[in-house]
Amino acid sequence: MRKFTTVLVALALAGSCARAPAAPAQAFNPTITRDEYGIPHVHGRTDAEAAYGLALAHAEDNFATIQITVLLGRGKLGAHLGEEGARSDFLWHLLGIQRSVEERYESDISPEFRAIVEAYAAGLNAYGAEHPDEVLPGARKVTGRDVIAGSAITVPLFWGFERTLGLVANEDGHPCAAPEATAETIDWGSNAFAVSPRRSDDGHTRLIVNSHQPWAGPVAWYEAGISSDEGWQMHGGLFPGSPFPVLGTNGHIGFAATVNLPDLADIYQLTTDDQHRGQYFIDGEWRRFETRTIWLWVKMGWFTIPVPRTLHFTEHGPAFNTADGWVAVRYAGEGELRALEQFYRMGRAQNYEEWREAMAMRAIPSFNFMYADETGRIGYLYNAIIPRRAEGPDWSGCVPGDTSANIWAMDDRVDAPELVDPSSGWLASTNGAPWYITDESANIGPDAFPDAAPAIETYVTNRGYRAVEILSPLRTISDAQLLEAKFDLTSSERSATMAAITAVLAADSSNDAELAEIQTLLRSWDRRAANDSPAAALAGLIYQPIYNAGRAATDPPDPVDAARAAATRLRQHFGRIDPPLGDVLRLRRGDVDLPLEGAPDVLRALRWADADDGRANADFGDGFMMVIDWAPDGTLSTRVIHQWGASDRPESPHFNDQSEMFARREWRTLAPNQGGAAPPR
To answer: Residue 319, Cα to own-chain centre: how many angstroms?
Structure first.
C-alpha cells in the first residue's frame, strides 16, 4: 500500500449513565412497535433490554450493513470487500484498535454502559441465530467489544485524520515540503439551526437536526425511538452498529451535530541516518523504532489472500518513510473508547447542566453540537479535543521530532469555542468557522479563545453565508421562515459555486458560439437550484467536478472546461443545455423516480452522482431530518422525514414510502408515545 487512502466507514457513536448490569440475553423481552411508516419504537424494562430490542429491530431492516460495522471493528473488512476494505483494516492495525479494546474495555467503559453494548450485541446474535443464512462470514458471535471497536476506528475520520495519513503514508510524498494540508471547505457537511423564544415570533423554541450523510451504507441514517422503565427515552437518528439514537430529542432536550475540522494531528520530522538504521534520534540518544508485522486478509475473486505489512512506531506515534525522510504522526484521542458512552450520557441528560456534564467527558474528539431544551435555552459548542501545543515550533508544518518537549500530552487540552443563549436568539451551524453562526452583533470571535483559534477552520460555507443573509434581517423568525431558510436553494455571491460561474462568464467567447450560448444561459440564472430552473442543471454540472476534486484533494478542472463538458452532456442526453433541473436531478429508489431540487452547498444540500442515463442521482446530503419544537407551555411536537424509508430491504413496503414526502418538503409528525413528548420525571 504505497498510498494510503481511507474509505468513509461506519460511525457507531453513543454514550452512558449509571444503570444495572445487563441480564442474560434469554431474559430480555423488549416491546417493539412500528408506526405506519415502519419506524420502530423499542421499550425495555431496563436500558440494556431496550438496546437489545433496537438491535433486533434494526437487524430486521438492515442486518447486512450492521455486520459491515462488525467486520470494521474487527479489522476483517478486507476479507469481505477486498482491497477497499483492506484499507480500513490497515487503519485498524495502525490505530491499535484491538490492543486498546483489550487493555481498556473494562477499565474505561463503565459497567453500566458495558451492559448496554453487550445487550445490543446479544440482540444481533439473537437475530443471526434466527436468520443464519444472512450472517456474513467473520461476523458471528458479536460482542460489546466489537461495538466499541467500531466506534473507535471511525471517530477520527470525521475530523479528517485520513488527510494527515494521506500526506505521510505515501512513500513518494513530501509531507514536510509545505504547510500541512487542510480543507478549504467541507461543503458536503451538515446543517443545524436553533431559535429561542426571544427571537421566534410565537415564543417557541425550535431545533433543526439536519446532518448530511450518504444515503446508503454504514454511515446512512436510520430512525428509531427507544425508551425504558428506567426513564430513558430518545428519538432520532443512528448509524448501523449504534445501540441507540445519537442525535434527536429525549423530550426535555435535543441536540444536533455538524462536522468540524479542528487540527488534532501533527507531523514530526524524525532524525535518522545510515549508521543507525532502524533508529531515530530524540533527547540526545538513538532509539529503536517499535515494529509490528500485520496481516491484511484481502478478498480477490474466490480467494482471500494474506498480505503482510510492517508498521513502525515512535514516542510520537506511527512512523512512515517518505521522500522527506522518516516522519511520525501524533493525533488527539489516541486509544479513546468512550465516544459511545458520552453520546448515551448526552441523550440521557434532562437539562443543560447534565448535558454539559456529559460533554465534559471529552471523549468525542470533534463535531459542532447544537443544543436546545424545553426551557428555551439554546447553545452552540465547537466540540474539539485540541491539544495544548508548545510555543515556538511552527505547528502548521512538520515539527522537529528530536525533542520530547514537542510531544504534547494527550490529556492536556485547551478550551474550545461555545456560544450559549446568544443575544440574537438564533444559531446556525453549517460546518464553517465558529465565528460566523448568528447575527454579527452576537457572534463570538477568535480573540476569546486564543489557545484554540490556530487549530480551528476559518472558512465559511455557502450555507453559512446564506443562513446569515436570510435570518439576520428578520426581526422575528417564524416557523415557516426557519423552514424556508433550511430549504434555501440559493448560492451566495461569496460561494464557490458562484466563483466558478463568474469565471465562465468572464471568459472570452468571441468567435466561440458554444461558450457564448453557455454564457447567455448562465446570465439568466437566478442562482437558485430550483427544480424548474432552466439554468440550474448547467450551473450544477459545472460546479460538480470542482466540488468532487475538492473532496478528493485533487486539482479541480478549469471552470470553462467544466462548462463545455456539462453542455455536451446535456445536449447528448436532453438535446438542449437548458432542461429543468428536476429532469436531471432525481431521487431514485426501487420503483420511485422523482424530480428534486438542491445542490451540494446550498442549504437544501444534495450531492449529484452521475447516472448511466446522463441524469444525476442524489446520494448524499439532506436525508433524515427533524424539527424539534417546544411551545411556551413546554409541549413538544416533533416533525421528521427520511429520504427513503425505514427498511433497506427492497421487498419491504417501507423501502421508499417517505420519498414522495421528502421530495415535496413534507414531514411526518411523531405521536407523543413515539418521541413527541417527554417521559414522566
So the answer is: 27
